[in-house]
Amino acid sequence: MSVLVACSSSSSTTTKNDAAGSGSGSGVTNKVTTVSCTGATIAATVTTGAASEMKYTPMATTITAGQIVEFKMGGAHNVRPSQTIGDPGLLVEFGADTCLKFSTAGTFGFHCQPHGFTGTVTVN
């Protein structure tokens, strides 16, 4: 039996690209990048509360390209990209605090995987 193992270096910054966001529509790739919250200038914060609270607060956020949104999830909630206007970089695990930098204009949709409630970040 053969086993193939691949190794790669890791870094604290992860870039995810997707052309599904609603940027200029001219093939521009939208980008959402995970960045360290330590020392970051946070433009907006999106939170969830207790498991019984089925919403993001706020549900819609508007920022300028290059700004950072901090996501603070309760233990029962997460963030996953919308299939229509999401970006694969919109990933926040259950109970995690994660900072995401939005570098391209557009509307980025996301949802809570187990509960289905939704939110958006609009980047000007």
Under the CATH scheme, the architecture is Sandwich
Give the SSE order as H and E letters: EEEEEEEEE
Uncertain stretches of 5 or more adjacent residues: 1-28
CATH topology name, in short, is Immunoglobulin-like
What's the rounded overall pLDDT mean?
Answer: 81
Helix content estimate = under 10%
Strand count, sense and barrel status of the largest sheet are: 5 strands, mixed
* Biggest sheet: strand arrangement: 1-2-7-5-3
Calculate the terminal CA-CA distance, rounded to whole Å. 53 Å
Q: Would you identify the CATH H-level superfamily?
A: Cupredoxins -  blue copper proteins
**Overall body shape:** globular
Number of strands: 9
Look at the helices and sheets and give the structural class. Answer: mainly beta
In what range is the share of β-strand residues?
Answer: 35-45%
In the CATH hierarchy, what is the class?
Mainly Beta
Gist of the model:
With 124 residues, this protein is mainly β. The chain has a single domain (14-123), classed as Cupredoxins -  blue copper proteins (Immunoglobulin-like, Sandwich). Helix content is 0%, strand content 38%.
